[in-house]
Every structure is written in structure tokens, then in C-alpha cells.
Write a structure and sequence with these properties.
This protein has about 270 residues and is α+β, with helices and mostly antiparallel strands. The protein has helices at about 65-75, 130-135, 170-175, 175-185, 235-240, 260-269; strands spanning about 1-5, 60-65, 85-95, 105, 115, 120-125, 135-145, 145-155, 165-170, 200-205, 210-215, 220, 230-235, 245, 250-260. The strands form 4 sheets. It has a 4-stranded antiparallel beta sheet with strand order 1-8-3-6. It has a 4-stranded antiparallel beta sheet with strand order 2-7-4-5. A 4-stranded antiparallel beta sheet has the order 9-14-11-12. The longest helix has 10 residues, at about 175-185.
Length: about 270
């Protein structure tokens, strides 16, 4: 399983969507405007909301995310049916606030639509054309930047390449990574790009052997590291050329996730 997280963005929320118990002293009333001189067309002064007092919710600091962005995250789960009308997501606090203290609602034009959260942080959000068109914000009673949304991304089971007589074409060798990259890019469009986190191939061989890439104008030998493994990163140029890769007998091929720094290190070797 891979988790995709999205922090709620900063935004201003109108006073009509205030949620949760509000304690502390009542907000001071706005002084009435002085009477306008006779015959003058003087507009009333703007109503200013005072800063939140202790125990009150700061309406200008609530976490929120547009409905369309929430749905985009939910649809990144490949296990969801294509005709789903409800999506399941998980919410959690980055600051240790218990799930029981978190509230969520859709700030619809008619009235707020609460989203019930269970004891484990899971909640359902409806998906329909009306909501997509309206695109209300999903708002929480927690401060912006303190919440995470998670979706369990079901990755396809990669089919490992078949090595025949110690030979396998580059495209066949990297087919599992191409498949996994396509799934991951539903969540992160940059995944697998140079300078980003990506998957790598680990080819476990003895330290006395090498892996050879037989290119059009010469072979390239890849020596194992101290653990006896050769690491390979997907390279578009080689994928398009599709050279033959010579792999020692009894080699074990695995797909491993690597950091951006580790990917750069593998490529430099």
C-alpha cells in the first residue's frame, strides 16, 4: 500500500460556517454608525469581525480544500470502481489532535453538509455532478496546515521479466517499473522523473559478475555494489533504444522504491 497525503490549504471561511463549541467571552458587538446628516447618502461602515478570543475558533485560519481536489485524491485509488458515487478517505492530525475532536463539512451554498468521521479517522464523501459543479470547500474546525488526507493506493502486482539464456530486452526488464510509475503518477505526476522519488531495479548477483547492457555502439558493464547487487534506474533513452541486457544465471530481480538522492547516485554510477 502507498499513502498519498495532502495538507489542507490556507483560506478564509465566512462566518456562517462556524463549527464546534465556541467558548470564552462573547464577541463585542459592532458599534452602531452615527446618524447620517440630513439629505446625505452615506454608506454604513464595513462590519469588521474582531480577532478570535481564547477558546474561540479562528475563522480565518480553518483548514479547507476544494471539493474537486478532494475527489482527485480519492480517485487516485485504483481499487475504487469507475462508477463510484461515494469515496472513502482517512483524515488525521499532524499535531496530535484526537480524531474525535476533528470535524468536517462541505461548505455548500444552501447550508453546511457535515461529513461524519469514525473513530479511526475514516469518512465518506459523496461524488456527483451537482457537487462537482458547485465545488464547495471541504472545511475542518482545525487550523490550516495541521491535517493530512490519506488514500490507500492499491498498486498493481508487477510481473517480473523472464530472463532466457541470460538475456532480456531492456523494455521487458523495465516493464514492471513502467506499470508502477503509471499507477503512482495518478497521485504524483512527477513520480519517476529525474530528481524525484522513483522505483529502481535491484539485480542480486555474485560480486564477481557484472550486468551488461549491449547498446548499438558498444556494451556497458554494470558492476555490483558491496552487497553483490546491481542497481538500475529507468532511462528513457535506453528504453527507446531497447538494447539487450545480459544477466548472470541465478540472478534475482526485484523492484525497490528509492529516494531522489539514491536515484541520482544510481544513475551516476
Amino acid at each position: 500500500m502507498v499513502h498519498a497525503a495532502c495538507l489542507f490549504a490556507a483560506a478564509t471561511v465566512s462566518a456562517q460556517v462556524r463549527t464546534g463549541a465556541v467558548g470564552g467571552a462573547p464577541a463585542p458587538s459592532t458599534p452602531a454608525a452615527p446618524p447620517a446628516p440630513s439629505g446625505a447618502n452615506v454608506p454604513p461602515p464595513a462590519l469588521l469581525r474582531p480577532p478570535a478570543a481564547a477558546g474561540e475558533i479562528d475563522l480565518d485560519n480553518l483548514a479547507k480544500l476544494p471539493y474537486s481536489e478532494v475527489i482527485k485524491i480519492a480517485q487516485s485509488d485504483a481499487s475504487q470502481p469507475p462508477d463510484a458515487t461515494v469515496f472513502m478517505l482517512k483524515i488525521s492530525s499532524k499535531t496530535g489532535v484526537p480524531v474525535s475532536a476533528i470535524e468536517l463539512f462541505l461548505d455548500r451554498t444552501t447550508s453546511p453538509q457535515p461529513l461524519k468521521i469514525d473513530a479511526n479517522g475514516f469518512f465518506s464523501i459523496p461524488f456527483n455532478e451537482e457537487l462537482m459543479k458547485e465545488n464547495p470547500d471541504m472545511v475542518s474546525n482545525q487550523p490550516k496546515g495541521t491535517l493530512s488526507l490519506e488514500v490507500k493506493l492499491t498498486l498493481p502486482e508487477p510481473e517480473m521479466p523472464k530472463v532466457v539464456d541470460g538475456r532480456v530486452a531492456y523494455q521487458e526488464l523495465f516493464a514492471p517499473i513502467v506499470t508502477l510509475n503509471e499507477a503512482m503518477r495518478r497521485v504524483d505526476p512527477t513520480f519517476g522523473e529525474p530528481g524525484q522519488q522513483q522505483f529502481a531495479l535491484e539485480i542480486a548477483i555474485s560480486r564477481e559478475n557484472v550486468v551488461k547492457v549491449r547498446r548499438q555502439f558498444g556494451s556497458r558493464s554494470l558492476s555490483p555494489d558491496d552487497t553483490g547487487s546491481v542497481w538500475m534506474i529507468f532511462e528513457k533513452l535506453l528504453y527507446d533504444e531497447n538494447p539487450m541486457v545480459i544477466v548472470p544465471e541465478q540472478a534475482e530481480i526485484s523492484v525497490r522504491p528509492v529516494s531522489a538522492a539514491r536515484a541520482m547516485d544510481i544513475r551516476s554510477r
